[in-house]
Amino acid sequence: MRISARTDYAIRVLVELAADTARPLTCEGIAMSQQIPYRFLKAVVRDLRVAGLVRSQRGCEGGYWLAREASTISLAEIVAAVDGEMLTINGDPPESVLYPAPAGSMALLWTALRARTEDFLSGISVADLLAGSLAVSA
Fold first, then answer.
1. By CB count within 10 A, which of 51, 77, 82, 102 is most buried?
2. At 111, which CATH number?
3. Residue 86 domain-assigned (yes or no)
């Protein structure tokens, strides 16, 4: 399974914002702190703003804040905001892919994997990551 750079960066941005809620943070500051390319970060933050996960303020006192409490922002929401579908097969949702026999049940496999991944990521919030309190069982 591959986690995109967009998802990785988006989660890191939101954890950074959750760690310092006293003031807005600039993209420049976040990019330096998290070692993320600035231009790429701007595009990711734009997607997070459109999804309602961050809010912004312009001007010399401007920057970005979380739009909601960190405990209410799940990792599944973040993935959806920056990457769209949780799991696709060559760009298509798993239920729309048809396999010839005897591999016909593979669409069920991919659909189940997507559901489990979404459930897992829905149960982890930005606040959980910030606190290091992940209830991950092997």
1. 82
2. 1.10.10.10
3. yes
Whether 137 is covered by a domain: the verdict is no
Q: Compute φ and ψ for 56, nearest 5 degrees.
A: -130, 160
Give buried/exposed letters for 78-106 (b at 16+ CB in 10 A, else e): bbbbbeeebbebeeeebeeeeeeeeeeee
Q: Per the structure, how many domains does the chain have?
A: 1
- pLDDT attached to residue 135: 62
In a domain, 136, yes or no: no
Token pair 């910030």 in the structure block, residue? 130
Evaluate whether residue 138 is within a structural domain: no
In angstroms, the CA 80 to CA 118 distance is: 10
H-helix segments, the chain: 5-19, 27-34, 38-50, 75-83, 106-122, 126-131
Per residue in 10-52, pLDDT (tens digit) is 999 999 999 998 889 999 999 999 999 999 999 999 999 999 9
Which of 64-68, 90-94, 129-133 ranks highest by mean pLDDT?
Answer: 64-68
Q: Do 52 and 35 meet the contact criterion of CB atoms below 8 Å apart?
A: no
Q: Taken in order 85, 48, 31, 118, is the CA torsion positive or negative?
A: negative
